[in-house]
Amino acid sequence: MSENKTISRSEVVRQRRLEQIRQQQEQQATLQVQPREPRLQKNMSRGKSKSGYRELPPITARGVVNDFAIERRKKAGKRRFNAVFSWPHPKVRTLTLPRVQIRVGWRLLSFFLVLLFGTGLYMFWSMPQFRVTAAQVTGNQRISADEINSVLGLNGYPVFLLPPEQIRMRALRSYPELASAEVTISLPNIVTVNVTERQPVILWRQEGGYTWVDETGTAFRPRGEAQGLIVVQALGAPPAMSTPVPSLPDPDGTEQAQVSIPKEESLTPAPFIPEETVKAITALAPFVPPGIPILYHPATGLSWTDGRGWQAAFGTSGDDVEVKIRTYQAMVDWLSQHGIRPILINVAYPNAPFYRVEQVETDTEVEVVEQ
């Protein structure tokens, strides 16, 4: 009796629950042990019903840990349930803005284009980065770049307003000593002038002054010094002379020569003397005695004073200089053999040379046939 009194009522209730749970588990175990009838036999037995056995779900108890229940959970696995809930869809109203249509017409587009081009031209005109300060001169030897720039006058001009052809024409017209000029313009403000100067061949002396002449017969202003020039002393103006060409004063201190060239509208100046005469001078130069200049006369052409006391005339043609020289030597030898001392030997026409002797009253011209 003392033991029953010590057991509390809660423990009695707990034992009763455990006993009920144990009985339920034993009943489930007995049901699972019973064999299920094969489906094949059920199909073959026509008299039996189509009802089958269905496995009961595991039963667990709260607060009771049982190994058998844990094994049942592992065998059965996790069960997954899909549920669909219908939630109310909120209605969202979009904000509608008023439609604004912008129509661009041709007049408005033209206005913007004109404004854009006008702004660009104004910037090109006003910005100092596009204005030329001075041209870059190349190829010059005797004419300085400052002289050429002073004539061109490009300082401060916008680069896109400079025509290359006008710059080239201005340079050639201002300086006859330039044979050619090429002008190139590049952004932002670069102007390049490539010049080719004339090379002097003849030092032409006339009326106390002198000028330089190139191989084309063009006269131009002497600048500095040039070596190996052929000195020609003119006794009269050449036929082609019509307008004055400036020249420097003679080194001996004499007055400036009044040398001239014909007027011409083209950029290349007209020849001061014919190109054929230049060819004759350059061909006769090796046969002239050292230190003696070549004389030029409008009537007799080219000549020089021979050291033996006569004048040797060769005309102005340069195609037959070698024939003239052989004819002249033959005449000199013939006159020496006959003891004749002439004052003039003219071989301007090799087929009809002649010489002139000095007489008291008149001069007699005697024709000599070449031997």
Instruction: Determine the structural class based on helices, strands and strand pairing.
Output: alpha/beta
Mean pLDDT rating: 76
Number of helices: 9
What characteristic shape results from the CA principal axes? Answer: rod-shaped
Produce the secondary structure layout.
Blueprint (H helix, E strand, L loop, with lengths): L1 H5 L2 H25 L5 H6 L22 H10 L29 H21 L9 E3 L6 H8 L11 H11 L3 E9 L3 E8 L4 E5 L2 E5 L5 E2 L9 E5 L8 E3 L13 E3 L13 H10 L9 E4 L3 E5 L5 E5 L5 H17 L4 E5 L7 E4 L6 E4 L4
Brief descriptors of the model:
371 residues; alpha/beta; Ubiquitin-like (UB roll); ten-stranded mixed sheet; 19% strand; disordered C terminus
In short:
The protein is α/β, with parallel strands linked by helices.
Structure characterization notes:
By secondary structure, the protein is of the alpha/beta class. 30% of the residues lie in helices and 19% in strands. Among the domains are: 128-197, Ubiquitin-like (UB roll) (Roll); 202-367, no CATH class. It has helices at 2-6, 9-33, 39-44, 67-76, 106-126, 145-152, 164-174, 275-284, 321-337, and strands at 136-138, 178-186, 190-197, 202-206, 209-213, 219-220, 230-234, 243-245, 259-261, 294-297, 301-305, 311-315, 342-346, 354-357, 364-367. The strands form three sheets. It has a ten-stranded mixed sheet with strand order 6-5-4-7-10-11-12-13-14-15, covered by helices on one side. Strands 1-3-2 form a three-stranded mixed sheet, with helices on one face. It starts with a helix and ends with a strand. Mean pLDDT is 76; it is low at 40-51, 241-265 and 360-371.
